[in-house]
Amino acid sequence: MTLVPHPPSDVRRYRDAGLWGTATIATEFHRIALLHPDRDAVVTTAGRLTFRELDERTDLVAAGLAGLGLRPGDPVLFQVTNRIESVVAWYAVLKAGLVPVATLAAHRGHEIGGISRRVGAVAHLVEAGLRGFDLVGFAREQQRDHPTLRHVLVIGDDARGVGLDSLGAGIDPRGARALVETIQAGIDPDAVAVHQLSGGTTGVPKVIPRLHAEYWYNAVEYARSWGWTERTRVAHLIPIIHNAGVVCAVHAPHSVGACLVLATPDLDEALPLMAREAATHVLLGHGHYRAADHPDFDAAVKAVTQVVLSGAKVPPALFDGIEARGLWSGQLFGMGEGLFLTTRPGTSRLARATTVGTPLSPLDEIRILEPGTETQVASGAVGELVCRGPYTLRGYYDAPEHNARAFTREGFYRTGDLAALVEIEGEHHVRIEGRIKDLINRGGEKINAEEVELLLLRHPRVTAAAVVAMPDPRLGERTCAFVVVDGPELTLPEVQEHFAALDVAKFKWPERVEHLTEIPRTLVGKLDKKRLAAEIADILDAERTGRS
Ligand code: AMP
C-alpha cells in the first residue's frame, strides 16, 4: 500500500468536530480570495500581488498547465527559492489538480533522482538565473532515462523549459476559472495534495503525503494559535516551499486573508523589506537566531508583535535578549510529518522561554514513551515524543517496512525527539530535551547521518564511517565524518570531491574529516556516536582555546 489512510472512524471524528473541511486547498484559497480581494496576499522585494491578482493569475497558469497535458494527481517537483512566482506556481499547480513535491533548490541528482522516481514525477519546476547553479540545465539532465518526467517548467526566462509566465497567456479568465472548478470538483478532499520530504528518518529521505483537508486544517489552526487576522503581516525568511514555509507562511496567513511578506535568508535584504512592509509577525529559524545583532533589526521589527523562534532549542539568553527589546517572543516546534506545538499568546513567560508549548489541535494526542517501547514514562520524565492526530501522517508514502518501525501499534508517529511534559501554571507544556534520531540539524536543514555514511562507504578507500554533529556557533550543527581508510588519509577536499561526483546536495557534504583505525562500538555493537560526538566537541574546544 503506497498511502496509509487515516482510519475511517478518525476521519469521521475530525469532520464531525469541524476540524477537517470538505474542500481542496485550491478551493479554500479561492474562497478566501473572494472575501479579501484587495488585500495584499504576497509581497517581495520584486513586487506584490493582492488576493484577487494572485487568484486570477493562478487560474490562468493552472489552465496553461492543464493545456500541457498535465492531469490531476500528476506530481510536480518544486525546486525554487523565495520568489513571488514560487507562490504563484504553488497555487497554480494545486488548482490544476497536480501534486507539488517540496524538494529544495539545494538538492542535486542524488536526492532528486530518487524522489522523482519514487513519486513518478511528471514535471520539474525550477527557476532560471539562480546564482551559482544552473537549475534549468540540471532539470533537463534529470529527464534523461527518467520514464515519467516529461516537462521542465521554468520561473524566469529560459528557452530550455516552459516559462511559467507564458502559461496562461491568451487564455480567457472565465474559461480558466471554469476549468479550475471542474478539476477541483473531481478531487477528493482526503486525497494527496502535497508531498513533503522527511528530514528525520533512516536512509534516504522519505516522502510525507499531505492531504487537502488535513493540510489546510494544519494551517488554519496555526493561524488561530497566534490569533492572526486579515491585518497580520507574516514575514518569512527560510525556504518557502518546505513544510514550515507552506504551513506557517503561505497557507496559514492566507487562511485568514493575511499577507505573506516573503523575504530571502539574506538579512541585508530581508530586514529592510520587513521594515518597508510593516511586518507584524516573524518566524526566525536557527540560522537567524542572531538576527537581533544586525543593525537593521530594530527598524525591521517596529510593527512586529510576535517573534517566533523555531527549529532548534532556544538558548535562554537569546530569548531574554529579544524580550528585553520589548518584543513578545514565543516558540514553535513543527515537522513535515504533522504535529505542531506553539506557545500561544497568553502563555506564561516561563513557558514561552523554556518550552515549545502545546499542540495546535484539541484532537492532537501526544505521549512520551521509553525509547523503542510502547511504555509511557513516569510523569515529567524524559522520553520519546510520539503523536497522533488530525494532521499527523499515518504512514510515509510507499515505505511499509519503515512505517512498521516509525509508528506504534496504535498509529502514533515516533518523532525521534526527546521531550518531557512540564507543568507550568497548571498547564502541561512540552519541553524538548534532545533527540534519538541520528541526524545533523544544520541551521534547520536536516542531514541524515546514515545516508551520509552510506555515501562515504562508496568511496573506494573508505572501509568504515560514522557521521556525527559538531557544534557550530552559526548553524547550530555541522557534519563531521569519522572514517577508517585503506592507505593514506583522505583530505576534506578529496571527500567533498567524492560527494560532488555522487551529485549530493552540498549541505550534506561533511565539513570535517577525522581518521580512526577503528570506529568505536557500544556494548551491543552499534557505532558509538556519543563517544565520537564528545571526541569532536573536545577537539573543537581544544582548537578554540589553543590547546593541542
Ligand atoms: P522538519 O520536518 O524538517 O521541519 O524537522 C522537524 C524536526 O525539527 C523535529 O522533529 C525536531 O527534531 C526539529 N525541531 C523543530 N522545531 C524544533 C524546536 N523548536 N526545538 C527543537 N527541535 C526542533
UniProtKB/TrEMBL annotation:
<keyword id="KW-0808">Transferase</keyword>
<comment type="similarity">
    <text>Belongs to the ATP-dependent AMP-binding enzyme family.</text>
</comment>
<dbReference type="Pfam" id="PF00501">
    <property type="entry name" value="AMP-binding"/>
</dbReference>
<keyword id="KW-0548">Nucleotidyltransferase</keyword>
<dbReference type="InterPro" id="IPR000873">
    <property type="entry name" value="AMP-dep_synth/lig_dom"/>
</dbReference>
<dbReference type="Pfam" id="PF13193">
    <property type="entry name" value="AMP-binding_C"/>
</dbReference>
<dbReference type="GO" id="GO:0031956">
    <property type="term" value="F:medium-chain fatty acid-CoA ligase activity"/>
</dbReference>
<dbReference type="InterPro" id="IPR042099">
    <property type="entry name" value="ANL_N_sf"/>
</dbReference>
<dbReference type="InterPro" id="IPR045851">
    <property type="entry name" value="AMP-bd_C_sf"/>
</dbReference>
<keyword id="KW-0436">Ligase</keyword>
<feature type="domain" description="AMP-dependent synthetase/ligase">
    <location>
        <begin position="32"/>
        <end position="397"/>
    </location>
</feature>
<feature type="domain" description="AMP-binding enzyme C-terminal">
    <location>
        <begin position="451"/>
        <end position="526"/>
    </location>
</feature>
<dbReference type="GO" id="GO:0016779">
    <property type="term" value="F:nucleotidyltransferase activity"/>
</dbReference>
<dbReference type="InterPro" id="IPR025110">
    <property type="entry name" value="AMP-bd_C"/>
</dbReference>
<protein>
    <submittedName>
        <fullName>(2,3-dihydroxybenzoyl)adenylate synthase</fullName>
        <ecNumber>2.7.7.58</ecNumber>
    </submittedName>
</protein>
<dbReference type="GO" id="GO:0006631">
    <property type="term" value="P:fatty acid metabolic process"/>
</dbReference>
